[in-house]
């Protein structure tokens, strides 16, 4: 990790590396347009951070250091951030895909012991190395599209040792391939079979053993809970969130996905970083998110896969200025879709986001959702130089055309990887 932020502009000459002839979609919120556009720039990196942004008109050959990369008028955006994934899991659920095509619902399948629990069985019997091997192709797909930071949740272990195994796998993935990984403990995903009929006893385990151990071992950056009839009720989620906060872990929730539970208001009142899904969120919930600065994470892949008819209330979120992020939710049941650009597109087509909102949702707002906005998510002097260079005429092409990748360079801490 690069060292201290650079509060002041460094001269290009003193930078380690400079990109010249680049257009920037900075997403700097102080700039007037939604993309934060600065055309025809030079961008310099020092010690892994953005150290200088200057118009090309003021650049001369003698003002440049040795290491110069010509961007040929291509576009730089912040590196993409996928702020909600379950990309570590055993097996797959193609059989449930078929059942759902025959008319069975996600909830029905879950109630019969399938759904999340079938992935729990498949995850528990796999070794760490097997889980790493099966997760890598999904992660590599995200990397090929320009993702530089990914959040990975546990939640298919549901015992102390299996949740730890999943978090260790998630962390190890960040050592195997060049991407930053943020981990989230989702022990409160669903009730494991050995606790059937005893949800409060399982929440005791989560709060008395799993959260404290995971916190002590530094394995998670945040704690999540699935507040739903097939997950946990408000009281149980509140206990999980309270315990997390007591252990200095950030909180976030799977809230209002399948019904209105008021879990978004609960999470917001406790200072959650984000509330995710939100198809059933109402005006009160939107106001509560707005007041706490909690990010609304939209997951159009799950909405699409579950053939939901009710959309998250985008107009309300806009009206109350709730920041909106967009993520893949990669998981074997409701969103087996490892493509952040597909999610940008779906958020536009299915949820009527603007192209600018979709790209901001996978950069600046996703950084906010992970609590890393001070260092990531926009192109501003002082931030870590995680960037993507795109062969496009404008960043509005990112949610527009799919099937091939215009990504030219993925830049992590100023290095092309
Ligand atoms: O985000 N909603 C709960 N969890 C996941 C689905 C997990 C699964 O079906 O395996 C989600 O949609
Ligand atoms: Fe999820």
TrEMBL record:
Organism: Endozoicomonas euniceicola
Amino-acid positions noted as binding 4-imidazolone-5-propanoate in the UniProt annotation, renumbered to this chain: 93, 156, 189, 257, 334
Obligatory cofactor(s): Zn(2+); Fe(3+)
Gene3D superfamilies, A to Z: Metal-dependent hydrolases, Urease, subunit C, domain 1
Keyword Cytoplasm: yes
CC cofactor note: Binds 1 zinc or iron ion per subunit.
GO molecular function, one term: imidazolonepropionase activity
Protein name: Imidazolonepropionase
InterPro entries: Amidohydro-rel, HutI, Metal-dep_hydrolase_composite, Metal_Hydrolase
EC number(s) reported in the record: 3.5.2.7
Annotated positions binding N-formimidoyl-L-glutamate: 156, 331, 333
Role according to the record: Catalyzes the hydrolytic cleavage of the carbon-nitrogen bond in imidazolone-5-propanoate to yield N-formimidoyl-L-glutamate. It is the third step in the universal histidine degradation pathway.
Binding site for Fe(3+): 84, 86, 254, 329
Amidohydrolase-related domain segment(s): 76-399
Family, as annotated: Belongs to the metallo-dependent hydrolases superfamily. HutI family.
Enzyme class: hydrolase
Catalytic activity as recorded in UniProt: 4-imidazolone-5-propanoate + H2O = N-formimidoyl-L-glutamate
Compartments it resides in: Cytoplasm
Keywords of the record: Cytoplasm, Histidine metabolism, Hydrolase, Iron, Metal-binding, Zinc
CDD domains attached to this UniProt entry: Imidazolone-5PH
Residues that hold Zn(2+) according to the record: 84, 86, 254, 329
Principal localisation: cytoplasm
């Amino acid at each position: 990790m690069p060292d201290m932020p650079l509060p002041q502009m460094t001269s290009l000459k003193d930078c380690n590396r400079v990109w010249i002839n680049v257009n920037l979609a900075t997403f700097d919120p102080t700039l007037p347009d939604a993309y934060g556009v600065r055309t025809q720039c030079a961008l310099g990196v020092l010690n892994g951070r953005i150290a200088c942004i200057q118009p090309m008109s003021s650049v001369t050959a003698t003002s440049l250091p040795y290491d110069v990369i010509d961007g040929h008028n291509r576009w730089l955006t912040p590196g993409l951030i996928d702020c909600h994934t379950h990309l570590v899991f055993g097996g797959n659920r193609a059989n449930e895909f078929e059942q759902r095509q025959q008319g069975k619902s996600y909830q029905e399948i879950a109630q019969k012991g399938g759904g999340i629990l079938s992935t729990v069985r498949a995850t528990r019997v796999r070794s760490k190395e097997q889980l790493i091997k099966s997760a890598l192709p999904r992660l590599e797909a995200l990397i090929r599209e320009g993702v530089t930071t990914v959040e990975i949740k546990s939640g298919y272990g549901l015992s102390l040792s299996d949740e730890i195994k999943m978090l260790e796998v998630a962390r190890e993935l960040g050592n195997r391939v060049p991407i930053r990984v943020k981990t989230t403990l989702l022990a409160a995903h669903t009730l494991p079979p050995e606790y059937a009929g005893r949800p409060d006893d399982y929440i005791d385990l989560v709060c008395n053993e799993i959260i404290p151990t995971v916190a002590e071992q530094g394995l998670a950056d945040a704690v999540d809970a699935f507040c739903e009839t097939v997950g946990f009720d408000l009281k149980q989620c509140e206990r999980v969130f309270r315990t997390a906060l007591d252990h200095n872990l950030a909180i976030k929730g799977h809230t209002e996905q399948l019904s209105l539970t008021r879990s978004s208001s609960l999470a917001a009142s406790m200072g959650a970083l984000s509330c995710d899904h939100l198809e059933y969120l109402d005006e009160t919930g939107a106001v509560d998110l707005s007041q706490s600065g909690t990010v609304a994470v939209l997951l159009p892949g799950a909405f699409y896969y579950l053939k939901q008819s009710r959309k998250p209330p985008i107009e309300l979120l806009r009206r109350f200025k709730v920041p909106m992020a967009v993520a893949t939710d990669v998981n074997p049941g409701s969103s087996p879709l490892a493509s952040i650009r597909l999610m940008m597109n779906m958020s536009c087509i299915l949820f009527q986001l603007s192209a600018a909102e979709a790209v901001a949702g996978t950069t600046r707002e996703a950084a906010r959702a992970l609590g890393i906005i001070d260092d990531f998510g926009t192109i501003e002097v002082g931030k870590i130089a995680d960037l993507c260079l795109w062969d496009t005429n404008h960043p509005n092409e990112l949610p527009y055309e799919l099937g091939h990748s215009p990504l030219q360079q993925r830049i992590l801490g100023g290095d092309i990887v």
